[in-house]
Amino acid sequence: MNLNEFVNCLTSGKFDEQLSVLYGYTDMCVLRSRARYLSAAERFSRLYPKCGDIRVFSAPEYADIAGDCKILGNGSLLAAAVGRDIAAFAANNNNNNINVKLPDKSEIAVDLDDLSPKEGECGTLAVIVRGTAAVLAESGAELGGLDVFVSAENDSSAIPHDVFAVLMTYVMNSFFNGGKLKRDEIAETAKKVQSEYFGVSANGIGYLLSAEGGFVFADFKNEEEPDVKPVEFDFSKAGYSLCITDTAGGETAESSTDIELEYMKSVADVLGFEKLSNAEIDDFYKKLPDIRKKCGDRAVLRAAYYLSENYRARQEVEALDYGDSEEFFRIVNESGSTASIVYQCGEDLSALMISRRFLGDTGAVRVQGTNTVQAFVPTYLAEEYSAEMERCFGLGSCNVLSLRKLGVCELIAE
């Protein structure tokens, strides 16, 4: 369809059903997403006034829900795709270039006659575009010129590289490869581009979530081949939104990565394991007196939090498998209580207190990381909750997100 047809379908509600799946089932979510896509369409028309038919795509970002694997790189993780995304308007061109305009008004231009790595591109979004084209060409795709405008929900926000890699892989696969790649292959291709061209090696969960959507549980005890399983539960349809608040506090000295690594390595040594992730909670508590004596109480608290968070991630998966949201919320609140003891960060403690007072017996709240609090809030209360958090922590500090079951996709009018 051309731009005028897209705008007419958007304003007449023909995209509403898909927009609700992507961004949330309330009228406000649909209206906001309509307005965003109308703005993006208008900008695309100014950037590429001679474009013909267009296609529109969306790739979700994701959030950690439970587990603790950021410091050690192993452990357990429950994560989910969310209703915050990056979108792309794309149309063929006749100049054999892939041109990508970014939300910050910067531009990427890749000549398809020369896909060799370029000096100075490593670590940039440009190398992802170039690398994606190169990888698909190697697999037999027939590349062609393409004009792309990328839309983010907040133009000042940094674009996640792994999500951008998934989006560009999906776009180019759709235009030049007949859509042959399946979702897991989209994720693997994006991961390959990130690793071989962008220069970043990652565990692949972000690519998987952006490509496939939904919930994923991963056990990283074997870091080379993590045990990954999907979790079937739709929080948006259950009537809950995910609210993430940046408390904008200062990091405490005790929360630095180097110190936390030393804490957990010292505890693992006392337990007789090479990695703390190999230990169970019972192992830890059996040797607690020795750990306190040799490592100190801060190390005890940090290691206990690590082990209990990874255990709680498995418990949460079990609760969701049974459709028991009440038990899931109980475990999330338990996580928040434990984190408040371990981190002792004033801003996060305040956010927990304010959230619990607001939520009462509904939903749940936890510390997602230093200076970040995550709450499951009934959708009908989400805007009011966000306003209260922003009253306390500043305008724009709280993001209200749906949890998204659908991964990267093309928008299709009903």
Report on this model:
- The protein has helices spanning about 5-10, 15-25, 25-45, 125-140, 160-175, 185-200, 205-210, 235-240, 255-270, 280-285, 290-295, 295-320, 325-345, 345-360, 380-395; strands at about 55-65, 75-90, 95-100, 105-110, 145-150, 215-220, 225-230, 240-245, 365-370, 370-380, 400, 410.
- It has about 425 residues and is α+β, with helices and mostly antiparallel strands.
- The strands form two sheets. Strands 1, 2, 3, 4, 5, 6, 7 and 12 form an eight-stranded mixed beta sheet that branches.
- A hairpin with a 2-residue loop joins strand 9 (about 365-370) and strand 10.
- The two termini are about 15 Å apart.
